[in-house]
């Protein structure tokens, strides 16, 4: 390369640049450059660097020169393009998010737009909000608009002179250059497409380091924080996130839609800002959560579960319980109930190389904090206890792996009655549905919120008959597991009514919610309905980085909890009306059954029931009192022998039993003959006469 430069010497280099022809079209303008031309700083790319420049990077190199001359061979050996990766931008975002997130909480100021078609004056200034202006900005062949930044709604007075000099500036989908009169032309992504606007930065003293604040005040989120060349409106970021939550549209699909809106005939000609959108979407969501949950101005950092919604209907002391609730004689109403289950659809593809992504959050939402969970898995040992019930899939597949996946699913805990995910209690599985995963999930779920004074806790799991026996032993042996204070001996281990009938008979009275006083009508399988919604996003979650996957799972679960919470009043009202109707029917059926029993039987059964419920927390086998005590009928041969012995002992040698047996055999032969005739109505052909 050095020899090439020496050979060129002082030769001139001709370059043709696209320029507007003043009539809505473009023409090539010849420019002459020499190696000693004035230098110009080249902006840093907003895309990750690669071994060779992409087509977009090469195009940006030419456009960045504007009308100035540049030495193309200056410092070729040192590579002047110090590109940043997506990781670099995320690290920069983490350092500055505390100072930036307060801007979003303010109302978006008016934006100063100037239509460039005639000599301008202050009277030409129009104030519009960003989402209204961009809905009609820059249609093909129309006049352009310039965006001015400044203090609030007032444009910087130092740039009015520059505005007056701009005449006949027109372009189509993408302008021929990246600068106009020394100001950057910024690619702005909005809900109706990709636009290009010249941005005149404020020139007032002290505003040099306030570029990011200026953009945020205008309702724009820049893709970089120094030399801004791409920005996204708040509206497009909200719309992109909503499209993912409701329709599970990925950022790639969403941006492809915007490209087609911008140029339906040639969408590939529209600048590709997918990678920037992919990254800014994460930053935007993180900032919104910090602001939404009140951590933007109080100087505190969010802790575990602080950036997540929970169930508004579950009893929570200090949140939704009345004063004096502990003195209520019916304290069973204030119990808590959780259910757990594993989902094998939420797998994660193992990356080809080690991930170096930035974790914007870990444990502040629904997915558990990764460091402590990894320490628990490293110290825990999975026990292989013998099967005491039917062979269920959750137990059979606890050593199952998915080829090429480093995560085989997630273990979740939710509110049993309303199906709201419990913050910090969603954990990744790495090999089947093991007890060590669910142990940690239950610990995090039961440590979230205040359980002080709660009468009892119902824990629903479809294999509780296998999970319960050594649960306390596993918790006591680990420093990472614990029970809620005062509730260790007040936990009812339940199995949902759908699953319990697939267990052995004794599992029904021991674990069915129908035999737990105060349980009411609950669904221990309610997570199954949540999986049906969450699994729509599984294909996109599979190939994300683990950090990005955790953020999107948090967002999806938070959105589901939000919808559950806002729909709770209507759900409770309908459930109450339904419960009144079913109660009347149940009382009628109970009265019919009760009328057939005696007072002595009622007293005996009530005593047995009270004793069983008093002992079940320490010995679940006490509930076996509900099992039927009917003995099975003896076999037929035994009945025949008993009848013959009775006849002989009575002195009756008439052979009554023998006649009955012989008659039964004759009847069986007749039935076989009739069956044979029915299957072969003409066994032999008729004789020919």
Task: List strands and helices in order, with pairings.
Layout: H1 2-8, E1 13-20, E2 26-33, H2 55-63, H3 86-104, E3 111-115, E4 125-128, H4 130-133, E5 145-148, E6 150-151, E7 154-155, H5 160-164, E8 179-180, E9 183-190, E10 193-200, H6 211-217, E11 220-222, E12 230-233, H7 234-247, H8 251-262, H9 274-292, E13 336-343, E14 348-349, H10 370-379, H11 393-396, E15 405-407, E16 409-415, E17 427-429, H12 435-446, E18 457-460, H13 464-467, H14 471-476, E19 491-494, H15 497-500, H16 507-511, H17 526-534, H18 538-542, H19 546-566, H20 568-594, H21 599-615, H22 636-650, H23 656-679
Helix pairs in contact: 3-9, 8-9, 22-23
Written account of the structure:
By secondary structure, the chain is α+β, with helices and mostly antiparallel strands. The strands form five sheets. Strands 3, 4, 5, 8, 9, 10, 11 and 12 form an eight-stranded mixed β-sheet that branches. A hairpin with a 5-residue loop joins strand 1 (13-20) and strand 2 (26-33). The protein is elongated. The N and C termini lie far apart (114 Å). The model is unreliable at 1-81, 102-146, 150-155 and 157-173 (pLDDT under 50).
Strand fraction equals 5-15%
How large is the radius of gyration?
A: 37 Å
The first-to-last residue Cα distance is 114 Å
Number of helix segments? 23
What is the makeup of the main sheet?
8 strands, mixed
What average pLDDT do the residues reach?
76
Binned, the helix content reads 25-40%
Overall geometry comes to elongated
Regions with little confidence, pLDDT below 50 for 5+ residues: 1-81, 102-146, 150-155, 157-173
Structural class: alpha+beta
Number of strands: 19
Oligomeric status of the shown chains?
single chain
């Amino acid at each position: 390369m050095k020899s090439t430069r020496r050979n060129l010497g002082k030769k001139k280099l001709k370059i043709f640049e696209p320029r507007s022809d003043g009539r809505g079209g473009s023409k090539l303008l010849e420019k002459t450059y020499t190696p000693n031309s004035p230098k110009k700083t080249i902006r840093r790319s907003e895309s990750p660097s690669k071994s060779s420049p992409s087509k977009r990077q090469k195009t940006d190199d030419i456009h960045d020169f504007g009308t100035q001359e540049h030495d193309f061979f200056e410092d070729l050996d040192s590579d002047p393009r110090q590109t940043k990766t997506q990781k670099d931008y995320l690290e920069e975002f983490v350092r500055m998010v505390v100072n930036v997130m307060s801007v979003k909480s303010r109302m978006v100021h008016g934006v100063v737009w100037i239509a460039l078609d005639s000599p301008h004056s202050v009277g030409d200034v129009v104030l519009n909000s960003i989402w209204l202006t961009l809905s009609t900005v820059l249609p093909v062949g129309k006049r352009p608009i310039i965006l001015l930044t400044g203090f609030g709604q007032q444009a910087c007075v130092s740039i009015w002179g520059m505005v007056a000099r701009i005449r006949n500036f027109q372009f189509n989908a993408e302008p021929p250059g990246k600068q106009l009169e020394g100001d950057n032309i910024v690619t702005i992504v909005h809900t109706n497409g990709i636009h290009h606007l010249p941005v005149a930065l404020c020139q007032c003293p002290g505003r040099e380091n306030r570029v990011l604040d200026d953009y945020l005040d205008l309702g724009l989120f820049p893709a970089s924080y120094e030399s801004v060349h791409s920005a996204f409106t708040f509206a497009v970021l909200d719309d992109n996130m909503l499209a993912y939550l409701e329709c599970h549209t990925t950022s790639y699909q969403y941006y492809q839609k915007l490209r087609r809106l911008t140029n339906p005939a040639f969408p590939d000609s529209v600048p590709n800002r997918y990678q920037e959108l992919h990254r800014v979407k994460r930053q935007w969501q993180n900032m919104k959560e910090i602001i939404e949950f009140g951590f933007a101005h109080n100087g505190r950092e969010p802790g575990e579960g602080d950036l997540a919604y929970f169930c508004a209907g579950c009893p929570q002391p200090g949140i939704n319980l009345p004063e004096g609730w502990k003195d209520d004689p019916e304290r069973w109403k204030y119990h808590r109930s959780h259910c757990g289950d594993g989902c094998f659809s939420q797998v994660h593809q193992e990356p080809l190389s080690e991930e170096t992504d930035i974790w914007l959050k870990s444990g502040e939402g629904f997915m558990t904090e990764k460091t402590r969970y990894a320490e628990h898995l490293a110290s825990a040992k999975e026990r292989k206890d013998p099967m005491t019930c039917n062979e269920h899939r959750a137990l059979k597949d606890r050593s199952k792996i998915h080829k090429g996946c480093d995560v085989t699913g997630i273990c979740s805990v939710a509110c049993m009655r309303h199906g709201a995910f419990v913050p910090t209690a969603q954990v990744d599985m790495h090999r089947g549905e093991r007890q060590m995963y669910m142990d940690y999930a239950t610990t995090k779920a039961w440590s979230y919120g205040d359980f002080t004074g709660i009468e009892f806790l119902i824990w629903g799991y479809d294999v509780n008959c296998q999970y319960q026996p050594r649960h306390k032993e596993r918790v006591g042996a680990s420093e990472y597991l614990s029970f809620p204070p005062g509730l260790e001996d007040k936990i009812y281990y339940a199995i949902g009514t759908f699953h319990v009938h697939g267990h052995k008979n004794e599992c029904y009275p021991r674990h069915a919610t129908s035999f737990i006083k105060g349980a009411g009508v609950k669904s221990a399988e309610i997570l199954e309905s949540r999986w049906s919604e969450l699994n729509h996003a599984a294909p996109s979650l599979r190939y994300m980085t683990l950090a990005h996957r955790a953020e999107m799972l948090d967002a999806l679960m938070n959105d589901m909890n939000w919808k559950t919470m806002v729909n709770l009043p209507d759900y409770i009202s309908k459930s109450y009306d339904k419960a009144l109707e079913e109660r009347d029917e149940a009382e009628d059926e109970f009265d019919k059954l009760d009328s057939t029993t005696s007072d002595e039987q009622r007293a005996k059964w009530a005593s047995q029931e009270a004793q069983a419920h008093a002992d079940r927390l320490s010995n679940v086998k006490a509930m076996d009192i509900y099992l039927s005590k009917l003995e099975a009928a003896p076999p037929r041969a035994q009945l025949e022998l008993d009848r013959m012995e009775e006849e002989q002992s009575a002195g009756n040698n008439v052979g009554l039993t023998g006649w009955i047996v012989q008659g039964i055999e004759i009847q069986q032969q007749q039935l076989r003959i009739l069956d044979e005739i029915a299957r072969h109505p003409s066994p032999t052909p008729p004789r020919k006469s």
